[in-house]
Design a protein that fits this description.
Length: 736
């Protein structure tokens, strides 16, 4: 059979149907797919040690002849043991394998072999345990060379994969070079086929280094080209240039009642300057939890409204949309700016009274009768229609909403500005709708995305290359640092006593668990089990609720609104000591939740964040949880509960304890977990990019410079193979 890149792997000798299915699970169906399945690391077996020089403990590669080999049974452990004596001109050594009796068929007395593995000294006998083995030949596949090690799955070992790769050596040169010759020459790179050859069959360490250099360069260069092309396409669009009203901006900051930080002022000015250009702004505003991003966005929306145009402000959840509505209304109403709210359940027009119970219910837990519920639904439908009409007629200057805004048949009078909070939670199609939605023909709205998850600098340089970045990297003055502590199991009881004292002061508590239900395979705290334990055994006298993703949306919203809407007062002398609550309502003291509360829940009265199984979360996620408390004048605390006392876990959690700087934590999280996890989605493209490349500022600078130089002189359309490769990275820059 003549092999080609398109040959099905199931047709290769030694693969067949069973191995073909295993390979398919890895996305490998053709010879081309298999050759593009690159090793994750390499083991250097080129150094051969004389047997007499082998010392325990240590790892060695040896060669010699088999003096003897045989199987025996271990009665105590009920396993078979294969023992062999290997000799070279300097001495002998014993090798043992466990539960591999078939080895005596592969290796026989007198065979010349190579072995590699760890040696131990037991009772004065030096033994090589479970070593890799290979008969000596003119063309070694595993030992006596630099051997590739692949990501393995059940039934697919690196040893087996090396055999399959070896059959495809000649096919490698069917790969076509896609990098332009000028780039290869300028950067001193080897060719694409040569790279593939050296990654699977490295001749020496220098050739392997050159292959890795080409691989890493390609990855970041293609990403940079994709990013620049996306930016070029965006720059072709036109936008409404918004005039800057300096007097109005000064008046806005005066009425805030607090002083903006220097970082807020800088970010606001960057955004206002972009709004003044006739090309659409495409900017990311990132800042730590509580750094004041909404105030900056409000100032920008004020400039847009004062120039006669509309803004839409989108949030990922109903609760967060309601909170943003209240904040923007409070900041913008003094300037007679009309603000409205539109979600799947709620519509508030500018003429309405303050937010009704559907935003923060005044009588949480009270279920209306079917008649009143029907009337309420009809009323909300009419109110939605009113808001939609007002948006179309231009009566609404700032519309706050959720994804529901995109689902409605909505038209704007002259939409010029789109703000999306936690923008990676909105898909590309949803944002495309908004970008095209403008009342002025031929223009696209300015686009500002906000993120409370600090993104490592190296990621912003590469993944967010098509965005301009504004960073708020300082906190408002007077904000108290959240005290963070790792709590070992023996100190838990003390923590519970501390929690009880905080509740008596009128404060509230979050408890975060990794799972909804108990896991049979992992000893992790579940929301349901922890809720039962806290309710019945630890705090039977307190009001405890739980929330998780399997609940109905309206049920989750009711509980969260009840928890968030609780305005606590310290108990007077005459009140029951069990807790201080508002006399009109039963309030939730402790909320047990999954990671639902990671982003966008603002409960100033909550002062303690408990995180069960803290070792199971990423550092950036732990930092986001911590950001749910410390949002008022009260001192707040974050307790990290873990039963895992390993040095690695303790060192990782120590990073959270020592710093409240989200950007430093994000860098550490990127280093530990990789980009896909840091950004919240294990997506194709980002997840496949080598984390080290995303943290390599020198490589990023090198590829950015080369991409710029190449595109200045060339049109990508003239390089179809390069365009095909770039497709993999399309959408990556915007986290789709």
């Amino acid at each position: 059979m003549v092999l080609t890149l398109k040959t099905k792997v199931s047709e290769l000798s030694g693969v067949g149907e069973i191995y073909g299915k295993r390979l398919k699970k890895l996305g490998i169906e053709t010879a081309e797919d298999l050759l593009l399945y690159f090793p994750r690391r390499w083991e250097d077996f080129t150094k051969i040690t004389d047997i007499a020089a082998v010392r325990a403990p240590g790892s060695y590669c040896i060669e010699g002849s088999i003096w003897s080999i045989g199987n025996k049974r271990s009665a105590r452990r009920r396993m078979s043991i294969t023992e062999a004596i290997i000799a070279d001109k300097t001495g002998t050594i014993k090798a043992v394998w466990f539960n591999q009796p078939f080895l005596i068929k592969n290796m026989k007395q007198g065979d010349e072999v190579m072995l590699a593995g760890r040696v131990e000294n037991k009772f004065g006998v030096i033994t090589m345990k479970s070593p890799a083995y290979e008969k000596k030949s003119d063309r070694q596949k595993h030992l006596g060379k630099i051997a590739p090690v692949y990501n393995e799955t059940e039934g697919l070992s690196s040893r087996w994969l090396r055999y399959q790769m070896d059959k495809l050596v000649k096919v490698i040169y069917s790969f076509k070079e896609y990098l332009p010759a000028e780039v290869i020459k300028r950067q001193g790179l080897i060719t694409h086929p040569a790279m593939i050859r050296q990654l699977h069959f490295p001749e020496n360490s220098y050739q392997l280094e050159k292959a890795e250099e080409r691989l890493n360069f390609d990855e970041m260069f293609l990403l940079q080209l994709a990013v620049r092309e996306q930016r070029k396409e965006l720059d072709k669009n036109r936008a409404i240039a918004i005039r800057f009203n300096e007097d109005l901006s000064r008046e806005f900051t005066k009425k805030l009642g607090f002083t903006l930080t220097n970082a807020q002022k800088k970010a606001a000015w960057e955004i206002i300057k972009d709004l003044g250009k006739p090309v659409p702004m495409n900017r990311l505003l990132e800042g730590d939890v509580g750094s004041g991003k909404t105030v900056v966005a409000a100032m920008a929306a004020l400039m847009v409204a004062s120039d006669g145009f509309q803004t839409v402000f989108l949030a990922p959840t109903e609760i967060l949309a309601g909170q943003h509505y209240e904040s923007l209304k409070k900041m913008l109403e003094p300037f007679e700016i009309t603000v409205a709210l539109l979600t799947s359940k709620t519509a508030i027009s500018p003429s309405d009274m303050p937010a009704p119970s559907s935003v923060i219910p005044a009588e949480a837990g009270i279920q209306p009768d079917s008649n009143s519920a029907s009337k309420s639904a009809q009323s909300q439908k009419a109110k939605k229609e009113e808001v939609l009409k007002q948006a179309k007629d231009g009566e609404i200057q700032v519309l706050v909403g959720t994804h529901a805004v995109l689902k409605e048949d909505i038209e704007f009078w002259n939409l010029a500005f789109v703000i999306v909070d936690e923008q990676h939670r909105f898909g590309v199609k949803q944002r495309a709708i908004l970008r095209k939605e403008s009342g002025k023909q031929g223009t696209m709205p300015h686009f500002l995305s906000m993120s409370a998850t600090p993104i490592p600098r190296t990621l912003t340089l590469s993944v967010y290359g098509d965005l301009d970045i504004s960073v708020i990297d300082e906190m408002p003055p007077g904000r108290k640092k959240v005290g963070t502590f790792v709590i070992p199991p023996e100190k838990k009881e003390d923590s519970y006593e501390f929690m009880r004292r905080e509740v008596k002061k009128g404060r509230q508590i979050f408890v975060i668990c990794p799972l909804i239900d108990d896991s049979e395979t992992m000893e992790l705290k579940s929301v349901t089990a922890e809720y039962e334990r806290l309710s019945r055994m630890i705090f039977p006298d307190l009001k405890i609720a739980m929330i998780h993703g399997k609940m109905r949306p309206d049920e989750k919203e009711r509980i969260m609104n009840d928890f968030a809407g609780a305005q606590r007062v310290a108990p007077s002398a005459g009140e029951k000591e069990r807790r201080g609550t508002h006399p009109l309502r039963e309030k939730i003291d402790i909320l047990v939740s999954t990671s639902l509360v990671e982003v966008g829940v603002d409960v100033p009265n909550a002062t303690i964040m408990i995180i069960e199984g803290a070792d199971r979360f990423g550092l950036a996620q732990l930092h986001q949880f911590r950001g749910r408390v410390g949002r008022s004048r009260h001192q707040s605390y974050c307790f990290l509960f873990t039963d895992n006392q390993s040095e690695t876990v303790q060192k990782r959690l120590d990073a959270i304890v020592k710093t409240n700087n989200g950007f430093e934590i994000a860098e550490k999280d990127l280093e530990i977990r990789g980009p896909g996890e840091v950004l919240g989605e294990r997506q194709h493209g980002i997840a496949d990019i080598n984390t080290k490349n995303l943290m390599n500022a020198e490589l990023i600078k090198r590829t950015k410079t080369e991409a710029k130089k190449f595109l200045e002189k060339n049109d990508l359309k003239d390089f179809p193979l390069l365009v095909e490769k770039i497709q993999k990275y399309n959408g990556v820059a915007n986290l789709e």
